[in-house]
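Tutorial, part two.
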Amino acid sequence: MLDIIYNSRAGCGLAESFLPTVEKRLRLAGKAYMLHETSGEKDGIRIARKLTENGGGTVIAMGGDGTVNEVINGITDPKNTVFGMIPCGSGNDFAAAAGIPVDAHKAVDILLTCEPKYTDYMECSGVRGINAIGTGIDVEILQRCMKKGFLKGKSKYFVSLLISLLKFKNYGLELKRDGRQTSHNAMIVCAANGKQFGGGIRIAPEAKIDDGLMDMVLIDNLTKPQVPIGLMKLMQGQITHQDFTVFERLKDVRAEFKNPVSVQIDGEIYKEMRFDVKIIHDELRMIRP
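Running the prediction step on this input gives:
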């Protein structure tokens, strides 16, 4: 049976439009399912925890990246639970990395026909993230997005990105990984399991979700005159190949800052959290192509 954790508010109405198609397709296939609708922030965590506290089962996140993050954090033991997605949010960034189309028929077909595959996720100070964990300008962008109510979806993110690039001041930090320590004056440090964030911005275009490594991207000492080319390369998916970018594939990474920082985990902001990230390999099984 599929336990579907459903966020009806996802995608500015997209989730609600998907629901009749999803239910009809499952009924026609004779697949047993139960719908569990979230009622507010973090409710997906509570529902997933309750569904998996006794082990086993198949839990499906139906919503956007926020819903996916809540479900991943609510699963009691990833080794004993199968995870799946029906993406219908505004960004659907991890769905792109996992090869799950934003189409109700096709997403359900994957649930019905594909076998679970081991899929990496990350942990930062005990909180799970499956797509991207970062600090720096990406946090500032998200905070601006929350304030721009007259814009929606990708346009909101892009406008917030432009403003943040013009106003942002780099963070001094010490980066520790693989027994090495280096000093940086960074605009962003991001640990990526997926390829993109912000509804399609390819921060780590070569990332793989099952290789046991995160793609660490750090933009270092970017000056104001370099901002336009940095933005262009980011939008083209070429940021990892620039002279001002530190790019490495790692199992764990830690950044220590002079002052407390906020960290975004799959688009959710955590204030004054330590940036201490590790990859979790061969535990979570996900239904995907």
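The chain is about 30% helix and 30% strand. In part three we will examine how such features are distributed along the chain.
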